[in-house]
Amino acid sequence: MISVEAAQTQLLAAFAPLPAELVPLGSAHGRVLAQDLTARLTHPPFPASAMDGYAVRSADLHSVPVRLTLTGYVAAGGRHDGIVGSGEAVRIFTGAPVPEGADAVVIQEDTEASDGNVLVKAAVAPGRHIRGAGLDFAEGDVLIRAGTKLSARHIGLAAAMNRPWLMVHRRPRVAILPTGEEVALPGEPIGPQQIVSSNGFTLAAMIEAAGGIPIQLGLAPDDENALLALAQGAAGADLLVTTGGASVGEHDLVQKALGKGGLSVGFWKIAMRPGKPLMFGQLGSLPVLGLPGNPVSAVVCGLLFMLPALERLQGLPATGPIPEPATAAVPLGENDQRQDYIRAELVRGEDGQTRVRPVAKQDSSMMSLLAAADGLIVRPPRAAAVAAGDSVPFLPFSRGTLPI
């Protein structure tokens, strides 16, 4: 067996960022930028009013109240061609260009307008309520760096930068192939010795949430030739993910079947729980990740190995899920040589502090407890026992970093 860290390192060495493609701005949310993005214009392009009110010369307001003559009106998208002189004001609205001669804006709440003039009741300093030209950014500024996963905020900024098209890394295509005679798809007739297969749907949802494109190849029976034929449907994908193969020993069938097609195995068996029987190899130029058949094991291994691969393919740092410190609610015993990922829930103690507590059962077939869990307590190999109140590494499901 090899360690989780060694397996992750070996796996990630097989992947590189995918080529870039040009997409419309409206389709770029969640994609990873492949090139630095520079602004095509200065924003705002002119000094603009930040409030509804009156553009004035601040020097006219040393002694207030003072009555000024109205000489114009300017709304957003309009302009005032004249120059604001001494004792004059221009009615202005948010976003409108500040007329020449004015150096401040008085908000309308501090004024009283009458025919042809306005009574200003509060003084303002030069520059008050004016957004200077280029306050946000200037033409040529690099505002979004390559490698950024584009959020709604980035999309809005790119729009303001006048960038209707963006170069982003292509989305990874991941073929999914669950195996086994003992499983049936949801809604299909279920035999007396069968269970419903959830792995393909769980993994597809994880792949989509991580920015990839899942490709369902169907269910492979426990037949080497049939399994190989279905696997060949992954041609053109960036990764093939299989689950199960337990009828002749976990992943033995997958290795034998794909071995007929030229599979070379990089590693098999990881010092972890759940998920020990995990395989990674190459089928020609196609990376193959063989996940365990038990659904909880498949999810945990997907988080630790499939997701970092998808990150690398999209030009992201490929760190995978990173634990954060949490407080144990109960004692945890000394660990053995395998790294444990313990399904856990958040509980609030009498002192009001939140702690993590393992769920009642850790059986790797129990999706109900995984769905109810709040995250995974990580127990490194040969970790010493911890007492209630001690700190433990924890992978929370609620931070948005784990797409499950």
Notable traits:
404 residues, alpha+beta, Molybdenum Cofactor Biosythetic Enzyme, Chain A, Molybdopterin biosynthesis moeA protein, domain 3, six-stranded mixed beta sheet, 7 helices, 17% helix
Describe the structure.
The chain folds into four domains: 4-17 and 171-313, Molybdenum Cofactor Biosythetic Enzyme, Chain A, CATH 3.40.980; 20-43 and 136-169, Molybdopterin biosynthesis moea protein, domain 2, CATH 3.90.105; 48-131, Molybdopterin biosynthesis moeA protein, domain 3 (Beta Complex), CATH 2.170.190.11; 324-396, MoeA, C-terminal, domain IV (Beta-clip), CATH 2.40.340.10. It has 404 residues and is an alpha+beta fold. A hairpin with a 2-residue loop joins strand 8 (111-114) and strand 9 (117-120). The strands form seven sheets. It has a six-stranded mixed β-sheet, with no helix packed on it. The chain is built from seven helices and 26 strands. It has helices at 4-12, 152-160, 199-209, 224-231, 252-259, 295-313, 367-372; strands at residues 20-24, 37-38, 48-49, 53-56, 66-74, 88-92, 104-107, 111-114, 117-120, 130-131, 142-144, 165-169, 173-178, 183-184, 195-196, 213-216, 239-243, 263-268, 272-273, 279-283, 286-291, 324-327, 339-348, 354-358, 375-379, 391-396. The protein starts with a helix and ends in an 8-residue tail after the last strand. The longest helix has 19 residues, at 295-313. Helix 1 crosses helix 6 (295-313) and helix 4 packs across helix 5.
Helix content range of the residues, please? Answer: 10-25%
Strand content: 25-35%
Low-confidence stretches: none
CATH superfamily of the largest domain: MoaB/Mog-like domain
Count of separate DSSP helical elements: 7
**CATH architectural designation of the largest domain:** 3-Layer(aba) Sandwich
Mean pLDDT: 94
Distance between the termini: 27 Å
Radius of gyration: 31 Å
Spatial strand sequence of the major β-sheet: 7-4-6-5-9-8
CATH topology of the largest domain: Molybdenum Cofactor Biosythetic Enzyme, Chain A
Beta-strand segment tally = 26
